[in-house]
DNA sequence: CTGGCTCCCTGAATGC
DNA sequence: TGCATTCAGGGAGCCA
C-alpha cells in the first residue's frame, strides 16, 4: 500500500528513468485509453480523452500520497490508494510483474513508451485539473517541511485530543503517513498507539516527529516496502520493527509484538516499549 | 471535536 | 474438493 516513501520512489523513478525506461519528462501524449472509467474522478471520460493528446509532461511532483504531473495546460493528479501502481513500459510489452487484467488507464507517448495505471482493487483515482489547490487544500503539512518544527508539532498535538494512531493516519493532521509508517514511528518513539495526543510533553512530541522523519527517510532510502502482491522493488519490509511482526520478539526488548485494532485499523506495537503512560 | 461505522474493491486465507 | 465467509486497507462521508 503506497505511502509517502513508495509514492516518492515512484516519482523519482519516473523522473530519472528506471531500468530500461527513460524519464517521463518532456514526453508528449499521443493517445490515452481508459479501461475502467471508475478510475477517473474528473472530468468525464469524453472530455478527458479529447484533452490529453498533445499534452507534454513538464514535471512530476508529490503532495502527501498524491502524485501530480504538470502538463502543458493542466495537472494530472493520481492517488494510488491501496493497490495502485504506475509503470512506464513499451507499448508493445507488458511487464511480467503485473497483471494486465488490472490495468485501468494508460497514456501512450510519441516515443513508443506507455504510462500504465494498474490498480487491482479499484480504489485509486485520477483527476485532470486546472488547479490542484482545492484538492490539496485540507491536507496537513508535509512531514519534511522545514516549517514543521518540533514546537509547531507539539502545538498541533496539544490542540487535539485524539489517539496517536488515528491522528497520524489523518491526512488533514499530517500528510503522507499510512498504516506501516505510523506503527513504525510510534514504536521508534516509544509511544502507545492509543495515547491521547494532548497528553504528550514537548520531549515526546519532538521524539515522535523525529521518529516519523526517521522511518519515512529509511523507507525512501530502501525504495519503499514491497508487501502483499502490491508494488515491487523496495525492501523496507526487511526493516519492519513491529508492522506484520505479531508474535515476533521486539527488536528492542524481546517482548512479543502484539496486534490490536485501533480505530478499525490493524495496529502493531510492543506493550513494553510503548506503555500507555510513560 | 471526537469516535464509530459504512462504503468502495479484490483476492488471499480461513472455515465448514 | 468446493463453496461461503472474513479480512485487509486509504479516504470520504454519515451519524451520534
Can you put this structure into words, describing what you see?
With 278 residues, the protein is an alpha+beta fold. The chain folds into 2 domains: 133 residues, MutM-like, N-terminal (N-terminal domain of MutM-like DNA repair proteins, Alpha-Beta Barrel), CATH 3.20.190.10; 120 residues, Helicase, Ruva Protein, domain 3 (Orthogonal Bundle), CATH 1.10.8. Helix content is 25%, strand content 23%. The protein is built from 7 helices and 11 strands. The protein has a 5-stranded mixed β-sheet, covered by helices on one side. Strands 1-7-8-6 form a 4-stranded antiparallel β-sheet, with no helix packed on it. Strands 10-11 form a two-stranded antiparallel sheet. Helix 1 packs parallel to helix 7. The chain starts with a helix and ends in a 9-residue tail after the last strand. It binds a DNA duplex (16 and 16 nucleotides) through loops.
* Adjacency order of strands in the biggest sheet: 2-9-5-4-3
Uncertain parts: none
**Taking all residues together, what is the mean pLDDT?**
90
Percentage of residues in DSSP E strands: 15-25%
Report the biggest beta sheet as strand number plus sense, adding barrel if it closes. 5 strands, mixed
H-E order: HEEHEEEEEEEHHHHHEE
Please bin the fraction of helical residues: 25-40%
Task: Classify the secondary structure makeup into a structural class.
Answer: alpha+beta
